[in-house]
Amino acid sequence: MPELYSQLWNLDLDGISQAAKNWHNLSAELESAHTQHHRQVTLPLKKAGWSGEAATSAFLFLNGVETRLEIGRVEAELISTVLSTVHQRMAKAKSDLRAVITEAEGYGYTVTGDGTVYPPPHTSRYEAEEGAGQLTAYRDRVESAIAAARQASDDGRSALTALHGDVMAQYRPHALNEASLDAQAALMYLGIDPPKPPKDPKSAAAWWKGLTAEQQRDYTLYYPQLIGNVDGLPSTVRDNANRLSLDEQLDDPELLTGHDYGVGTSAVIDPRYTAMMKLKDALDANDGAAPGKELYLLSVKGAGDGQVVIAQGNPDTATHTGVYVPGTSTTLSGVSGSLNRINLLQQAAEGAHPDGSVSTVFWLGYDAPELDQTVTTRTRAEAGAPDLQHFIAGTRAAQGPDHHHITVIGHSYGSTVVGTAANTGQLGADDIVAVGSPGMNGYAHDFGIPRDHVYVGKSDNDPIAHYLSGLSLGEDPASPKFGASQFQVAQGDHSSYFDRGSIGLENMGAIIAGKEPTLVHPAPVRDPMDPLHPMYPAVP
């Protein structure tokens, strides 16, 4: 103990503090280098359409460079966190040691150079016995301070040992995934538990605002999948976290992929990997988009058919937000087509001259049914409805106290999800739209908003809306009995509602923009389900 006492008493912590700052700065520089390389080297080559064997090899190399930069920024920041934590704990131990010595000496105790505490001279045996307890307490406090310093040192050494710096030497498969595991191991050695954000979106928003900038950055880097899926957090934060999470998922060794073995391999590529790569390519293709056209990755889960939520334009700041919920057979693999739809919806809304900016969201936060018996049951809708409610509540929380205008649009089975989420009056939307609907699992008066803010579009040539609506998934939303306003659409097939320049698309854009669409008929003045009135009142 004598040597440790002297070391702690004279310990200069400035070097540890400065090293932590240097590693933090290096992490920021590596992040900047990654961004510049991606935007100035890799993306221009991809957008130029370079292809062929040489291009494939080059892109593998360039992706490896970017992966190493991404690994470097995570591990550099982690080293900074380790050093900062050790510095904080060492500083407390040193402070505690000096405090007990100062206190003891103030009461007449003697402390030798090796840290041993001796009692003051006593005039009687009774006084000596009475002071024995205090002497023991002082000695215990000295030992506790030294033990805390030793533990901080040991934990810091274990945490740094958990990092494998060789991942920066050259790219190898799953290095980013390994870096993520390194981070979890290092934090475990430090006794740092994962954050526990509140489940309630408003509480989550307040929790995030209450964190320091350093905590926010560290949580985003070390727990990207957790932070990226917290409804109520800023879209910019979720986007940064989810893009890192996407890269880590793509590097998961559980996905046995051809890229593990180089070009020309015959290895089977996991369909989850293929789907997530399509998502990454779609996001990359949008990089550098004009203000208001940026894509924000608000959630991504690669399990099963994959789930994803993407916004075009920032929904936190937009005056008008349209949330598009797709239907049957929508998977992560078809993300490009869905992104095209929210782009068309945003253009249509902007063409309606809204008072303020517009964001449109592709919400595939549920497991869409396949073309089998699942499409005729409400099971998938009932499973997905709470998550849709939670997302809308999170959007409201991220927007703040001002009430922004939110429209939720369900297409095909997506309208069943929307109706199921709304039929308790808990969706939180200002307007609800159903197109090509096989049924909404309720009636307009169930949705918690005025019935003239529930809209339906139905093409007579749409086989889904024409033949399936009114059967197992609920009343036909276009029927007078349902009680909604019906707007004009082109008489096309099941996908025609989103055709560029079509009347249906223009009308959905108007609704998103807070304008009145061109109606076939408005909602009935009297609720058709009111027992005091005829079941099918005349439509005004």
What does this structure look like?
By secondary structure, this protein is an alpha/beta fold. It has 15 helices and 11 strands. The chain has a 9-stranded mixed sheet. Strands 1-2 form a two-stranded antiparallel sheet. A hairpin with a 5-residue loop joins strand 3 (295-301) and strand 4. Helix 6 (201-209) runs parallel beside helix 12 (379-399). The radius of gyration is 30 Å and the shape is elongated. This is DUF1023 domain-containing protein.
Please outline the helices and strands.
Blueprint: H1 2-9, H2 14-47, H3 53-106, E1 110-111, E2 117-118, H4 125-161, H5 175-189, H6 201-209, H7 213-222, H8 224-228, H9 235-250, H10 271-286, E3 295-301, E4 307-312, E5 320-325, H11 335-351, E6 358-364, H12 379-399, E7 405-411, H13 413-422, E8 431-435, E9 454-457, H14 463-468, E10 485-487, H15 503-512, E11 519-521
Parallel strand pairs: 5-6, 5-7, 7-8, 8-9, 9-10
Antiparallel strand pairs: 1-2, 3-4, 4-6, 10-11
Instruction: Report strand order across the widest sheet.
Output: 3-4-6-5-7-8-9-10-11
| Helix content, binned percent | 40-55%
Describe the oligomeric state of these chains in a short phrase: single chain
| Largest sheet composition | 9 strands, mixed
Give the termini separation. 92 Å
What percentage of the residues does DSSP assign to strands (E)? 5-15%
